[in-house]
Amino acid sequence: MINLLYPSWLWRMTIAACIGLFSYPVIMLIRGYTIELTTGYYYAGFSLYAACAHAWMIEWHLFKNRRLRNKLSWLDHTWLRFLIELPLAFLIGATGVFIGLSALMLSFFEAYNLSLTLWSFYLTLGILMSLVYSAFFHVAELLHAWQSAKVRAAEMEQASVRAQMAALQNQVSPHFLFNSLNMAHALIDRDTEEAKSFIDQLAEVYRYVLKNRQEELVSVQEEIEFARHYLALAQMRFQYILIKESVSPDALQRAIPPVTLQILIENALHHNAITHEHPLHLYIESTDNSLILRNTRNPRLHAPDHSHAGTGLNNIRQRYLFFTERAIQINQTDAMFSVTIPLLEFPA
Asked: Per the confidence metrics, is the pTM higher than 0.90?
């Protein structure tokens, strides 16, 4: 792709040569003359010097832009830049035409003994072409500045998103550790050996949390394996927890934010009384584009702290906002509570 702001030397010379090649017939047509095939020798000479004049203008405009671009940007010094650019464009155009025509007259004096009218015509044409080059490079400069601003804005937005995601992830990890240590504390009073086993498994579970705390997405398969480990820890404390999985192979390869299932399972543990008569049944199921976690309801007689109740679900909602417009869906009946979360695709 051509860099319009600073095209390569080969492109610049090619453009100058092409314009020079067509200059003679175009000027002859403008002046109302017929192009004769017998003028090929003069045509070649005129084209050569016209190409040199255009190369002169292109190179000087690029040199000028490089000098002024960082010192006097169009956005910050519009009028000053305009007042400097306009006379420079006239000077570059007039100088290019003067050098080209002078060389032409020296080489083909008899054929190109130009009158004052023709000098004025060629100077006007050269200045107009210089203004065209100046306008072209300034448009290229503005486009480049606009594209650079878009890239910087996108980079800043991505950095902001990563920072917000990291903040949300950091909300999860300490909360998870706090609840796990509460489980360990309860087991220590009941069975020391079981507590040791619990802590060993907790180390494995927390390794997963630390490994993925900087990840924006993980596979459903990884998340379900992590949920199994977490449920194994929960069963040591509550015992009466049953889980059933029905997730398609395609869904296992899709993505969700890390520790999403752990938050939903923890929510079920937090809000329900789990007993031999009323075990907690958990169902993890998939549809074409969603993952569903359902649990039976047996609300505690003493309601838990409601300031904590919505924290986990709100965390999931906020993290999903970074990836999709599809919202998580919550459904509740007397017997069942379910949360449906969208399945995502990994970035290409």
From this structure: no
